[in-house]
Specification:
This protein is mostly beta strands. It contains four helices and 30 strands. It folds into two domains: 31 residues; 408 residues, Regulator of chromosome condensation 1/beta-lactamase-inhibitor protein II (Methylamine Dehydrogenase, Chain H, 7 Propeller), CATH 2.130.10. Helix content is 9%, strand content 40%.
Length: 448
C-alpha cells in the first residue's frame, strides 16, 4: 500500500511539473486573451486585451505600433496582423491619435509612442521624428483618463487637474503663443470633470453635473452660439443631462440621459445628422440627430459619427467618402443615421479619422472604411485592386492572431512597389468627389 501511495504521489508530481512546463513554454495555447476595448486612429488601431496587454495593426511607419523596427520614419511600414506592443502590461486604457499612440497603466503612469511631429513627448525632435518604443510621460502622476487626437494629447489626473500638450497652431492650449507646447500644460478653470474629448484644434469637457464646456477653434463646435475663438472655457448652450461627448474635426456630438443624440458645428458632410442636406451649413447651437432613440454610446471621426443603441445595433451618418459609414453604399455622405447591417451584440464603438471599428460581446472586432494602411487587417492593394480606391464599405472581421512570431510577416518595408502611396494618391479625398486630386508627400506629387 505504501509503495502504491508513493507511486501515486510521484505520478502527480511529474504530471503537475509537465503541465507547468507546458504552460510556461506555450502560453498562447493554454491562455487565450480577449479584446475589451479598441481605439481607431488615422492609419492604425489599438486593441486592449483582458490581460492588460496592447496590440496594434495598420500604419507603423512612425512607430505608432511600438514595434521598434526603425529609428527613422518610414511610411512604408504597416502590419495587417495585430502585433503585441512590447513593454506594456497592466494597461487599462488605450488611445490612437493620427500618427501616435498612448496607453494608461493601472498605477496611473502614462506611456506614449509614435510620431513626435508636434512634440507629444515634451522634447522637440526633428520633423516627423519617430519614437517606436512606449515611453513614460514625465511630470504626470496618478493619471486616470487619457485621449489622443490629431496632434494633441489630453490627460485627466486623480486630483481633477486637466493637462494638454502638442500642436498649438490654433492657440487653443492656454492661449499660449508657442506653435508647439512641449510639456503638459494645465487647463485652468475646468469644472469637476466626468469625461473629455478633443480634436486637433479644440477640446470639450463634460462636467459631473451634465453640462458641456469647451475652448479653442470655433466653427460652431463649441455650441455657444458664436463663431468666436475661445481661449478660456465657454459653456455650450441649451445642453444639460449629458452622459457622453466626442469631438469631430469641426463638430461635436453629445448623448443625453434620455437616449437622444445632439450635434453642433460644421455640416459640410451631413455630420450633424439632422437631415439638413445643405452642404457647408453650420449650426452654432446643438441640434437633435433625426430618428435616434435608446442610444447608449457614441463616437466621432473627422466628419462621421457612430451611435450604439441599447439593442446592440449600430447607426452611422456623415462623411462616407471612404466607406466609413459601413452601409454597402458608395454615396458620398448621409445627413441622417443609417443602420449598419450584419452586426449584433455590439458593446464598444470607435471612430478613426476615416474608418470605424466595433467590438461585440463575444470578443469579435469588425471594422470598415479607410484601409490605405492595412488598418482593416487586409493588404491595401488587395482591397484596391485597380489602385484607385482603398476602402471597404461594409464590416469585415479582424483576425486576432496571438502568435508573436507572426509579427510583420505581412509588412511592406520598402518604398519601392509600395502599396500604400499609389492607392492613397487616388483614393477619394475628404469632401471631394472622384479621384482627380493628388496629395503631396514630402512635397512630391505621388499621383501617376
Amino acid at each position: 500500500m505504501e509503495s502504491e501511495t508513493l507511486r501515486s504521489l510521484w505520478f502527480f508530481f511529474i504530471s503537475t511539473l509537465s503541465l507547468l512546463i507546458f504552460i510556461v513554454a506555450v502560453p498562447n495555447l493554454v491562455y487565450a486573451v480577449s479584446p475589451v476595448d479598441i481605439s481607431a486612429g488615422n492609419g492604425h488601431a489599438l486593441v486592449l486585451m483582458d490581460d492588460g496587454t496592447v496590440w496594434g495593426l495598420g500604419s507603423g511607419g512612425y512607430g505608432e505600433l511600438g514595434n521598434n523596427i526603425s529609428t527613422e520614419p518610414n511610411p512604408a511600414y504597416y502590419s495587417i496582423k495585430p502585433i503585441r506592443i512590447d513593454g506594456l502590461t497592466n494597461i487599462m486604457q488605450v488611445t490612437a491619435g493620427s500618427w501616435h499612440s498612448a496607453a494608461l497603466k493601472d498605477d496611473g503612469t502614462m506611456y506614449i509612442w509614435g510620431s513626435d511631429f508636434d512634440t507629444w513627448y515634451g522634447d522637440f525632435q526633428s520633423y516627423w521624428a519617430s519614437h517606436s518604443i512606449p515611453t513614460p510621460v514625465s511630470g504626470l502622476n496618478n493619471v486616470k483618463a487619457i485621449e489622443g487626437s490629431g496632434s494633441n494629447i489630453i490627460a485627466l489626473c486623480e486630483n481633477g487637474t486637466l493637462w494638454i500638450w502638442g500642436a498649438n497652431n490654433e492657440g487653443h492650449i492656454g492661449n499660449l503663443k508657442e506653435k508647439v507646447v512641449k510639456t503638459p500644460y494645465q487647463v485652468h478653470g475646468v469644472p469637476e470633470i466626468k469625461t473629455f474629448a478633443l480634436n486637433s484644434n479644440y477640446a470639450i469637457v463634460l462636467a459631473d453635473n451634465g453640462t458641456v464646456w469647451g475652448w479653442g477653434h470655433n466653427n460652431g463646435q463649441l455650441g455657444d452660439g458664436t463663431h468666436e475663438f475661445a481661449d478660456t472655457l465657454v459653456r455650450m448652450q441649451n445642453m444639460a443631462n449629458v452622459l457622453a461627448i466626442d469631438a469631430g474635426e469641426y463638430h461635436t456630438i453629445m448623448l443625453k440621459d434620455d437616449g437622444t443624440v445632439w450635434t453642433c458645428g460644421a455640416n459640410f458632410m451631413g455630420q450633424l445628422g439632422n437631415g439638413d442636406n445643405q452642404r457647408g451649413a453650420t449650426s452654432l447651437l446643438p441640434v437633435q440627430v433625426s430618428g435616434l432613440t435608446d442610444v447608449k454610446a457614441i463616437a466621432s471621426g473627422m466628419a462621421h459619427n457612430i451611435a450604439l443603441k441599447e439593442d446592440g445595433t449600430v447607426w452611422t451618418w456623415g462623411d462616407n467618402s471612404y466607406g466609413q459609414l459601413g452601409i454597402h453604399d458608395s454615396k458620398e455622405y448621409s445627413s441622417v443615421p443609417v443602420q449598419v447591417t450584419g452586426l449584433s451584440s455590439v458593446i464598444v464603438t470607435s471612430a478613426g479619422n476615416y474608418n470605424t471599428a466595433v467590438l461585440t460581446s463575444n470578443g469579435t472586432i469588425y471594422a470598415w472604411g479607410d484601409d490605405r494602411y492595412g488598418q482593416l487587417g487586409i493588404t491595401p492593394e488587395v482591397v484596391s485592386g485597380d489602385g484607385k480606391e482603398c476602402y471597404i464599405n461594409y464590416p469585415v472581421k479582424i483576425s486576432l492572431d496571438s502568435d508573436a512570431d507572426a509579427r510583420y510577416t505581412e509588412t511592406q518595408s520598402s518604398t519601392t512597389n509600395n502599396p500604400i502611396y499609389p492607392t492613397y494618391a487616388k483614393a477619394p479625398l475628404p469632401g471631394k468627389s472622384g479621384f482627380a486630386q493628388c496629395p503631396l508627400i514630402y512635397g512630391i506629387t505621388v499621383c501617376e
